[in-house]
Amino acid sequence: MKKPTEKFRIPRIAALIHSDALASSVTLPMELSMAAAQTAGQLIDPESHVALISPTGGRVTTSGGLKVDTQAIEKVGRLDLLVISAIWRDPRRVLKRHPSLAPFIRKVAKTGTAIAAVGTGSFLLAETGLLKRKAATTHWFWFDEFAKRYPEVELRRDQLIVQSDNLFCAGSVNSISDLLVYLMGSFYNPEVARRIENQFSPEIRQRFRTTQLGSHTLQEHYDEVVTDLQLYMREKLSAPISMLDFAHRYNLSERTLSRRFQRATGTTPWQYLLTVRMSEAASLLRSTNLSVTQVATEVGITDSAHFARQFKRANQLTPTQYRKAVRGKMFSAN
Question: What's the pTM value of the predicted model, to 2 decimals?
């Protein structure tokens, strides 16, 4: 493995913004990528490390009032990474206002450049047609509109980060942190990625690193039988699960399987299953209008009162309180 002090080619990065852009979806990737370059021992100018580009160039005032000087998209050369900013409120306005963006993104993507769309920026990526018959995600509030507008895209409502070849979608600004650490690891090396991960927040890559773009945490271990059981639990989340039947698949006793699981993961199979169920329940409460009873059924718990107790124990809020709290922080549709 290369050492961070060895010389690397600094990746060419641009961030696409406009007057409806959510500035934090651009500034955070800029800071993470700059930290990666400096960690790798590169001398860079912070002001020019990431090119800020817009449909026409010039000074752009973002949705939050931040004024930035930009280059016009037609002046952009070869890139290694293009970050498409999240769109504040209704993303359809940007599609109508800036029809030149989709052809530009399509042109850049076809050169092999990595494209990272943040939140509702995925609408711009989908508008190119490059996501047809491919997986993608977006901000949860716009799931239904995205699915209606782009029926040929495989919308992954269960994942925060989705990769299709060189196209990446991150469901939120927090998720783009996860994704940028991963991309910086590919541009430099894993050691650089670990260092910037620790500089910004030691937990931001936990979900991405352990699942490789998955939706639930899998512990890092080398027991294939335990990994199969973890995957089996996730796939059969709403159905009754028989540990005995699963153990018989591998000619093991239920007790031996349980011991192997705990040795590999640090927890019991049933505690792991409960954790996955509560994680999925939180996702459903955030992103769907299912009732609490329906959410409980979806995650395999038939007693809604028992579900509510377990959810509160895991999240310090009842399911109803949790839904109200997380949705109260999200964008308005109007």
Answer: 0.61
